[in-house]
């Protein structure tokens, strides 16, 4: 497991934290980097928070492009791998993180987020995906969203974020443009009623 992931892990069962939830940016977020973003929370504890933006495409790169850049070859006859490459957040944008179902798990490099979803930050999972041994569903994110201790909680208190439960389409669906409205609809919020002056939801 990478040092960054190891440093942020904690024992499950702590109350009041949002691991395994989806954050939905409100117009009051005040940070253009997160405008209309949905973030899957991988870590949230007293030491800080870390998540992956799941509805913003990384510019000018596809999964086959990425494999080619890393000199990972797919065996002849292997069907093209359907895996979106996303701009996962403004921190460490040169690093890749794979969010995936836990039918793939590496003791050395996978951080289990919940019983269904894991996060892996090693090239081994890409090699596994290239040879048909990878997870059933996955997305690759370049970079991540990170918060210092207490920072995310303060943003939530200031109406910067709502949160909802994930589902496979919100996490791994390819229609990135639809995810924001879909997440709000899960909460019964009409996107057309949101404005920069929105109050408590």
Low-confidence spans: pLDDT under 50, at least 5 residues? 1-14, 196-201
Q: What is the oligomeric state here? A: single chain
* Helical percentage: 10-25%
Biggest beta sheet summary: 9 strands, mixed
In N-to-C order, the SSE pattern is HEEEHEEEEHEHEHH
- From the N-terminal CA to the C-terminal CA, the straight-line distance is 38 Å
Radius of gyration: 17 Å
Q: Name the CATH class.
A: Alpha Beta
Beta-strand fraction estimate: 25-35%
Q: Give the number of domains.
A: 1
CATH architectural category: 3-Layer(aba) Sandwich
Structural class: alpha+beta
Give the beta-strand count.
Answer: 9
How would you state the average pLDDT, rounded? 86
Using the coordinates shown, work out and report the CATH topology: VC0467-like
Global shape: globular
Number of helices: 6
Q: What's the CATH superfamily, by name?
A: VC0467-like
Topology overview:
Blueprint: H1 3-8, E1 22-25, E2 38-45, E3 48-53, H2 63-69, E4 85-87, E5 91-101, E6 110-112, E7 117-120, H3 124-130, E8 138-147, H4 151-157, E9 161-164, H5 168-172, H6 176-186
Parallel strand pairs: 4-8
Antiparallel strand pairs: 1-2, 1-9, 2-3, 3-8, 5-7, 5-8, 6-7
Could you describe the 3D structure shown?
The protein is of the alpha+beta class and 201 residues long. The protein has a single domain (3-193), classed as VC0467-like. It contains 6 helices and 9 strands; from the N terminus they run αβββαββββαβαβαα. It has helices spanning 3-8, 63-69, 124-130, 151-157, 168-172, 176-186, and strands at residues 22-25, 38-45, 48-53, 85-87, 91-101, 110-112, 117-120, 138-147, 161-164. Strands 1, 2, 3, 4, 5, 6, 7, 8 and 9 form a 9-stranded mixed sheet that branches. The chain is globular and about 50 Å long. It starts with a helix and ends in a 15-residue tail after the last helix.
